[in-house]
Specification:
InterPro entries: DUF2931. Helix content is 23%, strand content 31%. It is an alpha+beta fold. The termini are far apart.
């Protein structure tokens, strides 16, 4: 009998320790997602993306697909944002959002992206360390008045990544009708192939398509016009601020 009780107590203690390693996150907080924005003239392809939580010991894989040329199509974006010039980042109309394969609203400690610049067929690995300040903002309950006048509770739980043609990546937290800029990242690595071992030579068709897109719009790709590339475009219903 004592042995059975001791075993039961041990199991309860073990379960309690496991729960202590997990953040207490209200159920109403949405599952975190990512968004990918890129200049129309400098599109990219994300080949692998995942989040890691070291304290809770999990890895969450994110959905990816290959429709980045469609997402970044100049004419498609201009239909909703007529002043878009193809060089900057359209955070509202030139972005695609992706969910996790297995959903969780517990934030990762790190987000890892493997991506390819289709402009010059270069490969990058980018890692975002999700800081305590970022987590505090994402978990903060806010309110948002929608364009139709309805007030809703909301959270900023979408990580928006803006890819630049030199391998840099800008990051915003999106939600509640605003984009909060958090950081700019340099690549942690520049491998010789993409995540699927595809070489730059095998991307030649994509790079030629990028050149044709620019030529059709009477735009030049080199030298990179950084004053235009660093510009962001948003809907008039969204505001932009910065994490302090």
């Amino acid at each position: 009998m004592k042995k059975i009780i001791s075993t039961g107590v041990f199991c309860l203690l073990l379960a309690g320790c496991c729960m202590m390693n997990r953040e207490r996150v209200p159920d109403e907080v949405p599952d975190w997602t990512v968004g990918y924005a890129m200049p129309s003239f400098y599109p990219v392809r994300v080949t692998k993306a995942y989040g890691i939580n070291t304290q809770e010991d999990w890895t969450s894989i994110l959905h990816t697909h290959s429709q980045f040329m469609t997402i970044s199509d100049l004419e498609r974006i201009k239909q909703s944002q007529p002043d878009y010039d193809g060089y900057g980042l359209s955070l509202t109309f030139g972005i695609a959002q992706y969910s996790q394969i297995r959903y969780t609203n517990h934030l990762p400690d790190k987000v890892v992206l493997y991506w390819t610049s289709l402009f010059d067929a270069k490969f990058y690995i980018t890692e975002l360390d999700v800081t305590p300040k970022m987590k505090a903002l994402a978990y903060k309950k806010q309110s948002y008045i929608r364009p139709d006048g309805i007030k809703r509770a909301c959270y900023q739980t979408t990580f928006d990544f803006g890819f630049l043609p030199n391998g840099q990546v800008k990051v915003w937290l999106e939600g509640c009708g605003k984009y909060t800029y958090v950081t700019e990242l340099s690549p942690t690595s520049m491998p010789d192939t993409d995540y699927n071992s595809i070489t730059s030579k095998q991307y030649s068709q994509a790079t030629e398509y990028v050149k044709k897109r620019a030529k059709k719009a009477h735009a030049t790709l080199s030298p990179i016009p950084w004053d235009k590339v660093n510009k962001i475009y948003t809907s008039k219903h969204f505001s932009v601020d910065q994490l302090h």
